[in-house]
Amino acid sequence: MQPEGPEKFAKFNIHSTGYKSVNNQPIGVDVLVPKNAKPGKLPVIVRFHGGYLITGTSLFPFFFVSWLLEYAALNSAIIVSANYRLLPESSARDALDDLSDFWTWFHRDLEPYLVEVGASKEADFDKVLLVGDSAGGYLAVQSIFTQPVNSIKAIIGMYPMIDMKSEFFQKKYDKPILGHAPVPNEVVDEHLGSVQKGQIVSSANPPARWDLAIGIVQNGRYLEFFGTEPDLFPLEKLDQVSSVPPMFIFHGNEDSAVPVEGSEKFVEALKSTHPTTSVLLKTPPGNHGFDVPATLETDWLKEGLAFVSEHWLQ
Questions:
Q1: How does 172-198 read in b/e, with b if 16+ C-beta sit within 10 Å?
Q2: Is 0.70 surpassed by the pTM of this model?
Q3: What is the DSSP secondary structure assignment for residue 234, as one 8-state letter?
Q4: In 10 A of CB 122, how many CB atoms?
Q5: Which residues pair with 56 in a beta bridge?
Q6: What is the three-class DSSP state of 122?
Q7: Model confidence at 2, in pLDDT bands (50, 70, 90)?
Q8: How far is residue 262's CA from residue 106's CA, in Å, rounded to a whole number?
């Protein structure tokens, strides 16, 4: 896995801060302000990164796909990209606590923070787009259960990790995730043995912790660290939310890291519980991260972003 360089962020000024602290360790958030945008109110893209909730960080270039940066620049949008506590030092419950605290910071503190850093731009909270890739897609979906109706205008789920009760996450069998060789259980156990009491991790640049993530999933141990409480699983509580923002979900139909069936099951459940919700699902050929080379002119993506723009910006 060779990350691209930071030059891909060249169209943005990046301001980094923390939205909370845990055990005296800040949990970070990066605010990307388009350099060429005129002063005034700008639409906002909130983004959560992927990495199985085990690795990854807000500005890891390889996970921050170029087409999203181009889409943001084209629409003079501010991007707000947050970190969160990672497994196995923390649990999905901890990550959801961070998610809640992030949204509090977003609504209360983003505006004064933009003033503090001299951005000369304002956030238009009436035009918020939520984007999550892989595990970040899980956090994006979980946001619909806590955020006020109509506060998120649209969601893009990029090969989202939604169905963690599937056999893929619960059972050990041959899983050549992105061509990765089998990782023995001992790698996971050795890591657990090195964790100090109270230690948290909220940022990791792959390949750091990539073997750990692969090992946890390949050996069917995901829920051991993720948790098993019913409200951790979006598929089990869709009927508990009054409305769902328009959603564009895309997922490669050959995904070896997060099975496409999870997205298909979610869309089927969404259509059953919320038949009036606008949802567009695209499952082109491709593996996890198949959209990395895509551009704003790629047919399936162009169609999806037109759908998103209609709801986000109109």
A1: eeebebeebeebeeebbeebeeeeeee
A2: yes
A3: G
A4: 16
A5: 204
A6: strand
A7: very low
A8: 29
